[in-house]
Structure formats: structure tokens, C-alpha cells
């Protein structure tokens, strides 16, 4: 018996070693699980991230039949698996049910008339299928790794919105590879083809496909959005403002949260006249970095590049300015900070502004700016944090402990999860 237990333990260890890249697993579930899961489960899989059905089954070395027998809540093609739940992936002591005896073969080669050979809609659904596919699909496409809703729409000359609608992907982030997707339903009627005589739309410009979910109908210039691009980078490339880009592509939404990759965006419209670039330097002698949001004060002499984690409050704290002034200098941000755009420059200081007092330590060392809030008073030595700087590199460089770094700079957090780039930290006090 001891050897049997050792073998079970070894098998469990091998399984963990082989599949650690997918998710944690153990002899006890660490996450909620279905009450109908087999009672004799000896090994559990904690689903902490999405994974394709085939990859999961191959990694665990089990069949879909075994997995569904141990986890009755799971359907075909792993449908029903949910992130945040535990699932049984081994049941050593399970009593496997005896297979039912085969029914005698009928003498006739014709199927039993009472058993339908096709679904009620007359179309057999290819399997495995996307988990939320509509039930009236008639044409299917096998999704391969690297496919996107946009690329599938282009391949089948369909609106992107239809691919999303028919496959139950509201944001197109849960498209499964190695499974079938619907590319035509029984009820869909493609738009009628234009008459042969006019070869172009009424405005004379052919709209590139697929497009963002919603763009203006008088667009005359398009940009194919690639993965990693942002509203700011596109606006900068075509020398347009963020407000103009948002106006022409309203579905991207304020903050650029609705920008789709692998789809075209509008970057100019009929009749648009870009603002000419100045041929001389600014009148105040200070060059304004681009891009910026509309309406920024013309007397700005200090700028800050907004990142995804930047907030109006963090800017107020870093630059020791009043929020009322910040909103006045950057009206497009709004008084509630709802329109602070990442990858855009904002004004954090103006000509003639009285600078915030820079405290001088007893040792005669002036405190540089900007700093994070709550820094210890009396700091004797500082380090400027670059974008590549880490707490570990600071500790190594100055021979200090994390406890002291946190004590002198409480805003960075005890686990160093809030260290800001382009600010100063105290490294000796």
C-alpha cells in the first residue's frame, strides 16, 4: 500500500512538473467547485486564466470524456469552464461505469425513421464550436491561432459586427483557437450589391474594410490599426488632435478604450484642413511637446507625459499644484478628470507661476522636484527614478534595505508596487 501511495505521489509530482505553465494544481481545491464534482477526486486544477480546451486536456493527459465524467457541469469542448473555479483532473479510486452493450444492428441499412439524422434547422454544427455561437448558423470557419474577429470578417467579406454577434464575443477577446466559428446564419441576407454603373460610393471614396465599430461616413483617409498602437500614436502620426480622432471614430471612446486592432480607423475627412504647423518658435520661447489635448493654455512652461496609471491626484501631489489650476490649464481633462488621456502631455506649470517652496534639509541639501508624497523630512541623498529603475536596483546601488527605502518613501509601498518613474526618492536620511 505504501508503494501505491508513493506512485500516486510521484504521478502527482510529474503532473505538476509537466503542466505548471497552465495553472496551479493540488490534492485539494483552492477555488470554489461544482457540488456535483466526483467525490473521489484525487487531484485538482485551479483555473486562474483562460486556456484552450485542447491545450488543457493535453497538458493534463486526460480525455474530454474523463474530464466531463468527473465534472458534470462541463459541456462539450470544455464549455462551462470558468476562471476562478477548481476542476477535478484525476480520480484514481473512481469506479468506471461498465459500457452499455451495443444494440443489435438492424437488418436494413436505412436509419430508424424516428431518429433525425440532422438538427431541426437542417444544418449540422461543426464541433468543437465557439461556446456562445448562435444556433442558426449554416456556414462555419475553423479558427486558427493568430486569427482575429477582424481578419475573419475580412476573409469572408462580412461586417465585423456580425462576426462578433454570431459568436457571442462582445469584445472579441474570448475567441477560441482550434474551434469552429460561425460566418453565416440561415437568416442573414448580405447587403445588395451596388448597381454596376457607379464604381465608387456617392462621396467618391471607398471605405476600407473592416473598420472600427463606428466611423464617420465622410472619411477620406484611413489607417490600419496594428496591435500595440494607441489613439495618441495614430493622432501624432497624422498630425491631428486627439479630439479630431475621437470625433471621426466615436466608437473608440474617451480614453481610447474602444480602439480595435486589425481594423481601419478614420484619420481625415472630406473638407478637413489641418492646422498649419508654425514656422517659428513659440512666442513664450518654450516648445510644447506633442501630442497634447485640445485647449491647453498657451503660457505653459512645464509638461508631464501621462501614462496609463497617471491620475489627476497623482499629478497634483507630484508637482505640488492645485487641482483647480490643473483643470484651468488643461480644460479638455474635465473637472472630474474623466478625460485624462494616456500618452498625451498635460500642462503642470505656467509662466509667472509662484513655484512651490522647496524645503531645505538641516544638512543643507535641497529637496529636488518632483517627489512622491510623504517623503521623510531631513533626507540627505536622493536618486532620480528612470523608467528602467527598480527598487532592487536602488537597494543594490546604495546598499540600503527595503525597510528603509519604504520608511523614507512610504508612497512606493512596502512591496515596491508604486514606484513612479521621473520622480526622486530618498536613499539616505
From TrEMBL:
Keyword Flavoprotein tagged: no
Pfam families per UniProt: LysM
Family matches, as SUPFAM superfamilies: LysM domain (SSF54106)
Matches recorded under CDD domains: LysM
InterPro entries found in the cross-reference section: LysM, LysM1-like, LysM_dom_sf
GO terms of molecular function: chitin binding
Comp. bias regions, Low complexity: 105-126
Domain LysM: residue ranges: 139-183, 221-267, 302-348, 381-427
Signal peptide interval: 1-19
Annotated region described as Disordered, given as residue ranges: 97-130
Key words, A-Z: Chitin-binding, Signal, Virulence
Family matches, as PROSITE patterns: LYSM
UniProt record similarity statement: Belongs to the secreted LysM effector family.
Protein name: Tpa exp: domain-containing
Organism: Fusarium longipes
Amino acid at each position: 500500500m505504501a508503494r501505491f501511495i508513493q506512485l500516486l505521489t510521484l504521478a502527482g509530482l510529474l503532473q505538476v512538473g509537466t503542466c505548471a505553465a497552465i495553472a496551479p494544481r493540488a490534492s485539494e481545491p483552492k477555488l470554489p467547485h461544482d457540488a456535483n464534482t466526483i467525490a473521489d477526486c484525487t487531484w485538482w486544477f485551479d483555473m486562474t486564466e483562460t486556456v484552450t480546451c485542447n491545450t488543457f486536456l493535453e497538458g493534463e493527459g486526460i480525455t474530454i470524456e474523463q474530464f466531463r465524467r468527473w465534472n458534470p457541469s462541463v459541456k462539450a469542448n470544455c464549455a462551462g469552464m470558468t476562471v476562478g473555479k477548481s476542476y477535478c483532473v484525476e480520480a484514481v479510486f473512481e469506479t468506471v461505469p461498465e459500457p452499455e452493450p451495443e444494440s443489435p444492428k438492424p437488418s436494413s441499412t436505412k436509419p430508424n425513421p424516428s431518429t433525425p439524422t440532422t438538427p431541426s434547422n437542417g444544418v449540422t454544427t461543426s464541433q468543437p464550436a465557439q461556446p456562445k455561437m448562435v444556433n442558426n448558423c449554416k456556414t462555419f470557419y475553423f479558427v486558427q491561432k493568430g486569427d482575429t474577429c477582424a481578419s475573419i470578417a475580412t476573409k469572408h467579406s462580412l461586417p465585423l459586427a456580425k462576426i462578433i454577434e454570431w459568436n457571442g464575443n462582445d469584445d472579441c477577446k474570448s475567441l477560441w483557437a482550434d474551434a469552429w466559428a460561425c460566418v453565416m446564419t440561415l437568416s442573414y441576407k448580405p447587403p445588395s450589391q451596388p448597381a454596376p454603373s457607379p464604381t465608387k460610393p456617392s462621396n467618391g471614396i471607398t471605405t476600407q474594410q473592416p473598420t472600427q465599430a463606428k466611423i464617420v461616413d465622410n472619411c477620406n483617409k484611413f489607417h490600419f490599426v496594428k496591435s500595440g498602437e494607441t489613439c495618441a500614436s495614430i493622432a501624432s502620426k497624422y498630425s491631428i488632435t486627439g479630439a479630431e480622432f475621437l470625433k471621426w471614430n466615436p466608437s473608440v471612446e474617451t480614453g481610447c478604450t474602444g480602439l480595435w486592432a486589425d481594423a481601419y480607423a478614420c484619420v481625415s475627412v472630406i473638407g478637413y484642413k489641418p492646422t498649419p504647423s508654425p514656422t517659428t518658435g513659440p512666442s513664450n520661447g518654450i516648445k510644447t511637446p506633442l501630442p497634447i489635448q485640445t485647449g491647453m493654455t498657451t503660457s505653459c512652461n512645464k509638461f508631464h507625459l501621462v501614462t496609463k496609471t497617471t491620475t489627476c491626484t497623482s499629478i497634483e501631489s507630484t508637482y505640488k499644484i492645485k487641482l483647480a489650476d490643473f483643470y484651468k490649464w488643461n480644460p479638455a481633462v474635465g473637472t472630474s478628470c474623466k478625460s485624462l488621456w494616456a500618452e498625451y502631455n498635460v500642462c503642470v506649470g505656467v509662466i509667472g507661476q509662484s513655484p512651490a517652496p522647496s524645503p531645505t534639509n538641516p544638512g543643507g541639501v535641497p529637496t529636488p522636484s518632483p517627489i512622491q508624497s510623504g517623503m521623510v523630512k531631513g533626507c540627505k541623498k536622493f536618486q532620480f527614478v528612470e523608467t528602467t529603475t527598480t527598487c532592487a536596483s536602488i537597494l543594490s546601488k546604495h546598499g540600503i534595505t527595503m525597510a528603509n527605502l519604504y520608511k523614507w518613501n512610504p508612497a512606493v509601498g512596502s512591496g515596491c508596487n508604486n514606484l513612479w518613474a521621473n520622480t526622486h526618492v530618498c536613499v539616505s536620511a
